[in-house]
Amino acid sequence: IWLHDYHSAHGSAVGYNGQNQNEVRKSETWILAFEPGEENPFGEITIHSGSLAVEIKFVNHTTADPQYPSTEAPTEPRTINDTPIYFHDQLLGIGGFGEVHKVIRIRDGKVLAAKTFIPPANDKKTTKLGEKPA
Ligand SMILES: Nc1ncnc2c1ncn2[C@@H]1O[C@H](COP(=O)(O)OP(=O)(O)OP(=O)(O)O)[C@@H](O)[C@H]1O
C-alpha cells in the first residue's frame, strides 16, 4: 500500500511511530504496508497533509486472501536533490565508527542497512597559548 502526493500545495508528511513526521515532501511516495502476510514494521502511521491529519489502522494481513495481487512498488523517483526518508528498524550492530540499523527506504520499501557515524571523542587536550599542560 502506497501513498503518493501528486498535487498538494504544501506537501505531506508521514510519521512512522513518530519517526519522520516532520519530513514534509511534495511529489513523494511513502510505503504504508508491505504485501499481505508481511509483518508491519512501522507501528502507528500518521499522515499529515495540509491541515488534515489522517491515521490509518491496518487489518491483520496474515488473514488476507493471497489470490488478490498486491500493488507493485513504484519506480525510483525523479528529483535530483531530494533526500530519501528512512524508517529506522532494529539495531543490527555497532562498529568502530558508528551504529548499523536495519532501515526501510520509505519511497520504495527497500530494506537496507544504514550506518550512522558517531565521531570519536576528541581526547587530545588543547591548551591556550601561554598555558602549560598539567
Ligand atoms: N549489511 C548488514 N547487514 C546486517 N548486519 C550488518 C550489516 N552491516 C553491518 N552489520 C552489523 O553491524 C556491525 C557493525 O558494522 P560496521 O560496518 O560498522 O562494522 P565495522 O567494520 O567493524 O565498523 P567500522 O567500519 O565502523 O570500523 C557488524 O558487525 C554487523 O553485525
From TrEMBL:
ATP binds at K115. Keywords: ATP-binding, Nucleotide-binding. InterPro entries: Kinase-like_dom_sf (IPR011009), Protein_kinase_ATP_BS (IPR017441). This is Protein kinase domain-containing protein. GO terms for molecular function: ATP binding. Coiled coil: none annotated.
